Amino acid sequence: MLKQRKVACMMLRRQFLFTGVTAAVLRGASLGPKERIDRAIRGSDLDRPPFAFWHHFGLNNPEDHAKATLAFQRKYRTDLVKVMSDFPYPRPSGKWYELKPESNPFAPQIRALELVRDGLDSRKYFIETVFNPWNVAEKLSSPEEVQQLRKERPQVLLDALDVITQSEINHVKRALAAGAAGILLSVANAKSSVLSPEDYLPRTTSDSARRSIRGSCRQSPTLVSISCTFTSSQVTSISFVMFPRPPSITRST
Description:
By secondary structure, the chain is an alpha/beta fold.
């Protein structure tokens, strides 16, 4: 028994030393942004963790938007370029919820993505930002109007969210075709100040977000991250995954 324990300790020690040497070698090396992200996804050793920053520039044309995004990423030397999306969803001529599916709901954003792709010249992954259908509905009207419609005419709200979902699926397919490695889906209403868990979990709010992911990621492996706040003290951290494996979310305080 004692001999077995010694052998086990020696094996663990060798494994520890091997891991330490590997990490030391990698620290002396300089991985490229894409390789660093690929290794992180596989759970391999890294010279350092990959990181990204982003900012709402609020610019009203795709050329300026792409230029500002590229300059921001060059300044901070991020590993991943997350392109912010500030262009509005097309507003209907009638009531805000009387919507029809849009084949290209964010055409200026697609142009910005193409310019970002050309500016990066395949040196880094870039991902598109997609706001969940509830958030888009709020921007078409107001948070108060969406809540009122949910209480008084829930099926009408469901129909509007379904249309926005299909439009966003169309948009994400265009974004992937433009070279985006995936999406960041921002879930704006997964917090108690907007909806209770009982109200959030039914199809009214959560199914449209799931459909946005599934519908847009069937065609190829895609980097995806989901960002949402649940409480003021606990935030969902970004977790990159490769489809078709389902996304995983880890929490940090």
